[in-house]
Structures are given as C-alpha cells and as structure tokens.
From TrEMBL:
Name the UniProt record assigns to this protein: MULE transposase domain-containing protein
Organism expressing this protein natively: Rotaria sordida
Domain MULE transposase intervals: 98-194
Database matches in InterPro entries: MULE_transposase_dom (IPR018289), NAD(P)-bd_dom_sf (IPR036291), NmrA-type_oxidoreductase (IPR052718)
PANTHER family: NMRA-LIKE DOMAIN-CONTAINING PROTEIN (PTHR47129:SF1), QUINONE OXIDOREDUCTASE 2 (PTHR47129)
Amino acid sequence: ESIAIGLIYDQELARANFSQAGLAVSLSSQEAKSSLNKLRRKTTPILPDSSDFDIPDLYSTTIDSRRFLLGDLTYHRKRILIFSTDEQLTVLFKAKQIMMDGTFNACPPYFEQVYTLHCIKHGKSFPCAIALLGGKSTNIYKQLFNELETHATRLQLDFDPTAILSDFEKALLKAVREKFPQATHHACYFHFCQAVYRKIQNLGLATHYRDDEHIRDTCRQLMSLALLPCREVEFAFEEIVSKAPPLLLNLIDYFRNFWFRQMPVELWNVHNLDIRTNNNAEGWHNRFNRRINKTHPNVWHFISTLKQEEVYFRQQILHMKSGKNKNRSKKVCAMQDRLNALSSRFDNQEIDVEEYLQVKIMVKFVLTGSTGELGSSVLRHLLELGANPKEIILSVYNPKGADPELAKIVFDVRHGDYKQQQTLEKAFQGAEILFLVSSTTMIHEKRTEEHRNAIEAAKNVGI
C-alpha cells in the first residue's frame, strides 16, 4: 500500500527480462493498474476514518509472524498503540541508560505523535519501543510506562533505568519524575540550546546575534552554562550578566526566570555526560521518515514500515553481539577527549570559568552522530542554533576510498542551499571537511588562503 501500483508493475516488468516478443504482448502499467489495485484492496485493510479501528493479524505481528503489537490502550478516548517484540523489550529493560523522543512527520492521522524509547548499549542507540500516542498529556505518558512495566514483570525483568535523556516537554518531565524517581533525568543539550536561540529570535535579536560578536559570544556563553558543573552555573551566570550588553537585558531576564526558576539546573546540566543530546534517537527518526517517504502516512503504511525496521533492529543487535558494530569515529573520540580534558582542567582549577566557557564556544558546534556521520538534520540543527557560518568547521564522515582533497564542499547558507535533504546527503558523501561560508566564491577544490587556514585550524584542534 506504500508504493504506487504503476511503479511496482514497471519494476517487475524490468526484472522479468522479457524477449522482444514478450514485451510486445505485455500490458502497459496503465492497463494492468485496475486489476492490480483490486488485488491490493483484498490484502490491505480499509483506511480508518477515526482512531477507532481494528488491527488485522498481519499488522499485529512481525514479518516472521511473532507478536509485535504490544499494547492497544485507550485513555479518555485517546488511543495508544505500542509496538515492540520481546527481544526489543529485553534489551530495553536490561539497559540502564535510555533516551525518549517524539516525532510528528511520520505520525498517521488520528494520532498526535510517534514516541520512541531507545536504549544505549555499547555506545550505540537501539529503538526498543515505538508508540503511537493519541495525546501528549502526563497521564498518556504514564499509560505508556505502565504498559511497559507490565511486560517487564511478564519477562521477569525490571523497568528501572538509572539515567534518562529526553526533551523539555513539561507533561513528559512530570511523568518521568513520578514513574522513575530513582533515575537521573537530563534533558537534551541540543533542545536547551535551541530553546535559547528561539528566544533570541522571538526577542528580535537574531540580526544582532549574527553581526555583533559581543552579543553572539554572550549568548553562546549562556548556552554553554549547561556544560559547567552544577555548583558553578549560578556564579558563572552572574559573571556573564555583569559583562552582558544592555541589548540582552530581556534575554537575561528570560534565562533567569525560566532556566533557574522554572527548570531545575540539574535537569538541563550535562556536565561530564558522554551523551548530551538525543541526536541518536533523532537519527533513527530521520531514517524512519525517509523509509516512510511521506508526511502523515496512513496507519497501515506506518506499521508495514515499522515491521521492516524491526528486522533492521535484529540485524544491528546481531552485529553488536558478533563484534561487528561500527565504532565511533576517531574524530568524534578526539573531540570527546578534548571536552573531557577541558572539564578536567577546570575541575583542577587550571582554567577559570571565563576561559572554560570561551573554549566551549569553540567546540560546541562540532555535531556528529555516534559513528561520526553528519546528516542534514544536524546541519539544520546547527543553523537553528544561530551558528555563524564564517566560524564553523565541521568534521564529516569520510567514506572509504574518497579523495578528501577533491571533496571540499562549500554552501551558501544565507541563500538556502542547505534546504534539500537529498542533495545534502549526496553532497556529504566523500566530504572530509565541510566549511560553511557566507558566499559561494570558494567552491570544491578552489584553494584560497582562507580555505587553507580553515583546514589547518581544523587539524590543530584535533578535528
């Protein structure tokens, strides 16, 4: 039900490799479409016109006929569908560190979001439970957690993570606090920075942020507060305030009123965490959205694609168990080592708060996935955070065999060259260093002095 009938017919006709005579008598895709559509309707359920619909066995089981629909619940007329196999649940319940994240583009009609729980195992993220939620209230999240708890008991396991990483949604924060009081709960660092930058935009400061170095550095120092030890955050904030330009008064008031008075510092602080963002979970969402290949698909297309992802989960688990899982890139490890070294120097009082924050500004925008890939979604995140295109050097995954000297890519970020996801992903193949500038005068292997200096700077900081 997810691929056009005409396309399927043309693909199968090409695979059949008919002779000239066979092709001459074969039907065109237009002629075959009516009969093929009738066959499809016999195997595909009618599309629902509300959230009240039955789910056939074909969509309740995995491709190899194991139970896949874990829970089918209703809370105050809001439906909740949870998908997971016992193998996925076992991995989830044995994990001590989990990530929670939602997405909306892939959500079928009559549901509000797709919500996923991922576990971290050997530094890699695995999607273990995927839910279609009819709402975003605290009680709906608690229904999801309760159902998972029931199955943990059935499997003679416990659902008691010690560390949880999520976004800042208030309904979720309350549900996590009530259901997992024993867990250390941190919110995603990217979402923290994104929230601060959106406030910068809302206050009409985006142009000043882009053009005024003092304003930009002050804003970034506010974002970098999350990287300090909790005990130093308030003192560092007051230091920043004492030197902040008057134009940022409203931003300072917002930061004090919201991030200190409404959100506990311990929640948004990510000091000494190896995993600071939900990028791994969002990476899976991007992968899933690409396979869905449409916005708000029908529920049958959604479940069919999810069943294919369950096969991918099993493959990744087997790779991990056999030692074939992909290691984190040397560049990502080097950057993590650099961050750890900075934290150690600060803890040992070798550098002060101001020096620490200034160095963090230099490295905080080096964003890659756990294996070193840089996706277009990460680039969009970077731009949403207001990164200055003249200051950014990014480490990009270099596929085997690519010639890095011929793979320098330049984007004019002010004219929207980053908008096309497929174009970006294709462009990233073979890129060793991605240098963002404000004009397209430096293209591909063109060697300007500024470009050479940028590459040398990247080497010097261990990228």
